[in-house]
TrEMBL record:
Residues 368-420 form the HNH nuclease domain. Gene3D superfamilies: 1.10.30.50. This is HNH endonuclease. Belongs to the Rv1128c/1148c/1588c/1702c/1945/3466 family. It comes from Labedella populi.
Length: 471
């Protein structure tokens, strides 16, 4: 029988002698790379042997306490640490993993295979490193009490195959092995995912923080995975991907080229950051939600917030209103935007502060008007803006103050952001024979702005399906 100790001594001497002669710096690139691989292969074999010997020492120490005493150690772990000149934690890791990969002998003298036989085989052959082996053994051990043994064995075999590679696929990097192990564990142990989800449910939160000097409210929170995914999807789906479109200019007609130029100019005019755009999408979503929740009560207006404003402020277009429930004043401009979509209800007070008279809601587009405008405009009418019709607000093209009527021929769809930026931004609006037109970046002449595919002559009352979708 070959003596492993003699083999190790001879191999050590060989390696020492060879290392003394070779020059690493003089090695060719291919030689260098080949050596890195070969070193690892030999290292894996030795690592496997280290585990096996540490575990065997621990097994014998449990049967014979003198073994530990002879080493002057306090425990088997301590003794292995001393013998190998390693830390106790490293010694413990070797012993634990070594036991998981060691076969044993039953009282009747039969050999009992290792608990993790596939991993043990791969480590012994030097195909699997102990880092990946440790990952697989540790994670599968955690779920083993709850998982059927055959399922566990199958998972172990598949993970070893992924980690070591086979004829068709190369070995996985250890980081990827960790991902795969987590996937397998989640798959075979549904009970393991549930407690984590329960913890997440407990810790979900959305908090309104302090208000900055500018009146911005900070929000903080932790969203459940599905909620986060929904919000992310809604936000990102409605933010146009920036960047050039690589279309072959020679393959385009003159008209298509001009159209592209116009779109590019409109895109450049939108200087919002991605974070700002996400905020604006959220504004549009909240608008739409408010409209749905309260449509039966307030004629399709989003009444989630109430602003109190003096009649003179609205008439003069100067001053401020106050958001219900806050001390934050809002500009007359903001009041106008909310009035456009939410309407105005006049309340006359006596000098003493009692209610003298209460008017009905004015200047608010009815759901029927809104549906007609949606059928015509098909979404925020600003070129390049992807916000859909359901999330858009109806804007008075000629302001109410200047005599603009609350009529479909004076209402157009604008998203949350374009509604608020329309007075200061680069876009101008005009109704021509009941059709919205825009002028702005890349659109130097009045351009039909509706996003319906149908041409104007084909305009018709909204079909039944459109009613259902939007109403
Ligand atoms: Zn828009």
């Amino acid at each position: 029988m070959t003596n492993f100790r003699q083999t190790l001594v001879a191999m050590g001497a060989d390696v020492r002698a060879t290392l003394g002669e070779v020059s690493i710096g003089g090695a060719s690139d291919s030689e260098l790379m080949a050596c890195i691989g070969e070193l690892e292969a030999v290292g894996r074999l030795l690592d496997g042997a280290r585990l096996a010997y540490a575990a065997e020492f621990d097994r014998r120490a449990a049967l014979d306490g003198d073994l530990v005493v002879a080493q002057g150690g306090r425990s088997a772990v301590d003794s292995v640490a001393k013998l190998a000149s390693i830390s106790e934690s490293a010694a413990k890791r070797r012993i634990v993993l070594g036991h998981a990969l060691a076969s044993s002998v039953s009282f009747s003298g039969e050999t009992i295979p290792p608990r993790f036989e596939s991993v043990a085989d791969a480590v012994r052959d030097g195909r699997l490193g102990i880092e990946a082996a440790g990952l697989i053994v540790t994670q599968l051990s955690k779920v083993s009490p709850r998982v059927d043994d055959a399922v566990l064995r199958a998972a172990e075999a598949s993970l070893v195959e992924l980690a070591t590679g086979d004829g068709t696929a190369p070995p996985l990097a250890v980081d990827l092995v960790a991902d795969q192990v987590a996937l397998f564990v989640a798959r075979i142990d549904p009970d393991g995912v549930r407690p984590r989800e329960e913890r997440a449910r407990q810790n979900r939160a959305l908090t309104f923080g302090r208000v900055t000097a500018d009146g911005l409210t900070t929000i903080r929170g932790a969203l459940m995975p599905v909620t986060a995914a929904q919000l992310r999807r809604l936000c990102d789906a409605h933010i146009r991907a920036a960047g050039p479109q690589f279309l072959d200019p020679d393959g385009l007609s003159e008209a298509e080229r001009e159209q592209l130029d116009r779109e590019a100019a409109a895109d450049r005019a939108d200087t919002r950051s991605r974070a700002q755009k996400r905020h604006d999408v959220l504004g549009s979503i909240l608008d739409a939600a408010a409209r749905v929740a309260d449509a039966p009560h307030l004629a399709g207006a989003p009444p989630a917030v109430i602003i109190t404003v003096a009649a003179a402020v609205l008439e003069e277009g100067r001053g401020a209103g106050f958001l219900d429930g806050t001390r934050t004043p809002v500009s007359e401009e903001t009041v106008e935007h909310l009035a456009d979509t939410g309407g105005v209800q006049p309340v006359t007070l006596t000098p003493g502060g009692a209610i003298l008279s209460l008017g009905s809601v004015q200047r608010c587009f009815t759901p029927m008007q809104r549906r007609a405008i949606i059928a015509r405009d098909g979404g925020c009418i600003i070129p390049g803006c992807p916000i859909p019709a359901g999330w858009s607000e109806v804007h008075h093209v000629i302001p109410h103050r200047d005599g603009g009527a609350t009529h479909v021929d004076n209402g157009v769809l604008l998203c949350w952001w374009h509604h608020r930026g329309i007075d200061s931004g680069p876009w101008r609006l005009q109704m021509q024979r009941g059709v919205p037109h825009v002028r702005g970046p890349g659109h130097y002449e009045w351009t039909v702005a509706t996003k319906r595919r149908a041409s104007i002559t084909e305009l018709r009352p909204p079909s039944r399906s459109e009613h259902r979708r939007t109403g």
